[in-house]
Each structure stands twice: as structure tokens, then as C-alpha cells.
Amino acid sequence: MTGDIREHIKKLSPLMAEDSEIFRELSTFFGDGAKIETNRSDLSKFLGRKRLYRIIRIAGTSYKDCAYQLIDNYPEAMESLGMLRYYKAPSAPIQWEEIEKAEIALGGELTMNAYGWMPDAWTAFENRDPVVDAENPYGLVALLAFGYDD
Length: 150
Description:
5 helices; globular; CATH 3.30.1330.20; four-stranded mixed beta sheet; alpha+beta
């Protein structure tokens, strides 16, 4: 499936370099191992016309801590046209109720702003990376799409 998604990304965005950070993260998000199945239609929405992309990586003490860091330290994330994000669990099993709390925190912030993300999707991976920082073993990777004018 990972090779298949790479071909799909190239088809939708033929000028995107395969060795770029956004290409790699899209391959991860839509690739194998996601604990919540991702929808390919989100990929075509994310790779819309006239887009710039940014990747934000956050490490924290919990999923909710990661979400609050995204809200507090990266206000531009709330202004993006689309956001795909995945949580990285420090170990199995994933604590779904804790991810739900993080998503509620993000949703609460979005109700204060104009909600217009297309797409707005998330998933989670178990043991995706070795824990580098024992004090901040949880992770959140946010893929942001912004529009621009000519």
C-alpha cells in the first residue's frame, strides 16, 4: 500500500519532490500502520491548487499536551486551509480516550475561529519512533496546507 500511495501522491501533485518532507509525511499518514483508516479523498483535498505546506513536530508529556502546544505555540496552524495530523504513541496499546481529549481541545479552539479546514483528519501510530525523550514520549505531527495568491 505504501508504494501505491506514493504513486497516488505523484499523480495528484506531479511537481512535488519525492524526497521532500511533505511527501514523506503524506506517505506516512496515508501509508501502512495507521490505527484509524485514512481516507484517500482527504489527500486530494489537501493537495489542492496553490498550496504551500508546513510540517510541525511536537513532543509532549501526553497527547493533550501536544495538542495544546500546537494551539499555543503555532497559532498559524489554526489559520491553515487543511490539516492532517497523527499522534505517535510511546507504546502499545494506544490510549484512545486520551487522544479523544486532545482532539476535543483542538476542536474547542476551532469553534472560536472560522472552521474551514479541508481536510481535517487524524490517525495514530503505535511505536512509530523510538522514544528519544523519556520526559516527552508522546508525539504529534501536523501537516498543514496554506493557500496563496499569485
